[in-house]
Amino acid sequence: MTANGIKHNELRQLVRSQLELLLNQGNLEGAKALLVPVKPVDIAEAIEGLPESMQVIAFRLLSKSEAIEVYEYLDSAVQQALIQEFKRQEVLDIVDKMSPDDRAKLFDELPAKVVRRLVAQLSPGERQATALLLGYEEDTAGRIMTPEYISLKESLTVSETLTRIRSLANASEVIYYLYVTDASRRLTGIVSLRDLVVSSTEKTLGEIMTRDVVFVHTDTDQEEVARTIQRYDLLAVPVVDREDRLVGVVTVDDVIDILEQEATEDIYALGGVQSDGDNYFQTNLITVARRRVVWLFVLLITNTVTGTIIRSQEELLQQVVTLAAFIPLLTGTGGNVGAQSSTVIIRGLNTEEITDLGPGKVIFREALAGILLGGILGIVATVWAYWLQGNFFVSLAVGISLIAIALLASVAGSALPFLFRSLKLDPALMSAPFITTAVDVLGVLIYFNIARVILGL
Amino acid sequence: MTANGIKHNELRQLVRSQLELLLNQGNLEGAKALLVPVKPVDIAEAIEGLPESMQVIAFRLLSKSEAIEVYEYLDSAVQQALIQEFKRQEVLDIVDKMSPDDRAKLFDELPAKVVRRLVAQLSPGERQATALLLGYEEDTAGRIMTPEYISLKESLTVSETLTRIRSLANASEVIYYLYVTDASRRLTGIVSLRDLVVSSTEKTLGEIMTRDVVFVHTDTDQEEVARTIQRYDLLAVPVVDREDRLVGVVTVDDVIDILEQEATEDIYALGGVQSDGDNYFQTNLITVARRRVVWLFVLLITNTVTGTIIRSQEELLQQVVTLAAFIPLLTGTGGNVGAQSSTVIIRGLNTEEITDLGPGKVIFREALAGILLGGILGIVATVWAYWLQGNFFVSLAVGISLIAIALLASVAGSALPFLFRSLKLDPALMSAPFITTAVDVLGVLIYFNIARVILGL
Known about the structure:
The structure is a homodimer. The first copy, chain A, is mostly helical. Chain A folds into 3 domains: 4-138, MgtE N-terminal fold; 151-260, CBS-domain, CATH 3.10.580; 284-455, SLC41 divalent cation transporters, integral membrane domain (Tetracycline Repressor, domain 2), CATH 1.10.357.20. Chain A has 22 helices and 6 strands. In chain A, α3 (40-48) packs across α5 and α8 crosses α10. At the A-B interface, α1, α3, α12, α13 and β4 of A face α1, α3, α12, α13 and β4 of B.
């Protein structure tokens, strides 16, 4: 056996560099042969890397069944571009055979007119499955679930079940859990394939099933779905409607992508960038600018306030110009202390690690950390400022201001995310860029007032 | 059937609020009854929320088999605290029955002396399993894998395999994939439980197995292991040693935790906080301060440079004091533009979304975004600055500086993470706090020079 772990990585790189070359030479047979041993997700990646004009050509090299799998792995921007290039029949072949959850995701992105036409041409069963998913709100369990699962009756024996599975296995994405429902399709229990295999064949599902099932509702937020699967180490979680009827299943592989997407959104928010779940590197420059400029304007205006405060102190500054030199140090450090607090708190709220402690305890802890950090930095800054410019009173004003600003920053950085959450807003809005700028304004005010007192001006 | 999805959440909250109350009243029977219908992970959470003195008491209410499961879910700080409270025999009972990967994680945290004593007292099989895992470096596949999997020979038939599984299932964490190995324990193929169940019983494993197995090596970094499972939608990935012998398996539930931990590390880095994988909210204040103060010092010193530059311009500032008022606006906006670029690039590098494009293209794109954003903001800032203080030349200097600073910030924010990665350093070090501070220094220099030229000073 060769080292497949390495082989795969080499193959991926080889495919990406060779595919374009072969297509440029018009060597379609060569390209086809190149793709044979490659996994669908890797083919999708290679196609995404091609110039747009070549993507359709490469895609047509695939067999029908492979084409569907590869298509499901493509980025949504590429999916949309391809669908415009396809002939009518090609589109139908692919869309009809996609799994319903992937199809719903694609339909979300396509123009409503195109979706209506496509839905009309789907086979009846697929049309129903798609309509079901599209009927739920975005980012809920209903939208991301697959309606392809195996549900069985309690009275079935293990051996009957095994026979049934053999005939159903290919039609279902989820096979590791079997769901037991009653006459009105209500979920009554769950049997894992593991339970089934280790049980004696004459037992009934009712005898071996677990009755205490963890499940979610169709309107449960996707992040909560993900946290449920993560918390209980599940491979899939069943989704029920308001009447407790089983309607679908969310699988662990979708959950990984959801958690990653949520982490990206959090990270973007911390960096002051709006995110809408698209691949950033596939969006155009205007969209990029639009997603950033709003935040920048908010911060620009806040910064103007800082400027106004500084201008209002012109007469003080003219007397002791050296005071201006320490503004960046104070606001910069304050901003950084605040950013550290808000980062830790926002992440804690989002991963639910923080739930054990109340806001009071957490903010108090951050305040202590702020005083501690402010104290250490304040002493250093006082010495440093004295060494730099030799005026002891200015140095003292810098040091004392730094302690006050660090305390203020850590309290603001920890309290504002809680405040926002209690107002049902995303705590991540109170992230580093905002805290930094808010601390600037207050930091400058604190500094000038402390300086006035100490310098007796 | 009751609505379990809701019932679980209510139960969790009830357990957390009631457990301490019952223990305070000394009502141990009541506390025991309360915990009966609760899942181990939820019991663990409730115990973590108790005061330290009560944690042992609550823990002793559990049955032996449940105690082990609950213990595995506890945060490592609580695990360590508990182990010091336990009697010798209790410790052994738990540690011996933990799964090897969880045990290895615990041993990582305990003092070496305690670990040596515990290892000596383990049963021989468990001792070997633990020693195997502890022999690999931290954060590698070898360290996080479980050595409990089912490996079989090619010649076995499906029905023989099913019989075998029935006897092995309880001893193995992983059952959904069966691994096929040759005489020298080399991995030759993989059979999913699904394949097994749907195949006719007289076929051999050699006939139904998949030979093209995705696997990782013992020294593969845990993040790469996670990405492999995510990429190929696996439930588990086999781990082989240098001789391609199968030695363990990493499961998807561990991968979710790894990806979340890596996301937390990235987020902390973006906020200028060091992280070592512990639960932040369980660490003490000194550790908290230590993890933040290093960054703050680095930034303090960099900010001093900004201060020094401003002081060197004292004679310019004395002539046009109003220039000082726009320093926060310029450095603040520059910092925010840079933070946006670096956030997007660092996340892209970490999730491997960026791999299709080279650094050149990405940096060029960010530069264009910088000019675009700088242009918009520059025009607004010029008008705004004129309206605020009425000096056209100062306003013009502010506007032009803003364009230059935005360009600089977006180029620095996108180029530095790439540079760091090519030096084999973590790109996240070039995150918002650093970029913000670096842009401050250069921004002030640019501003003063542009102002000098425009004001003719």
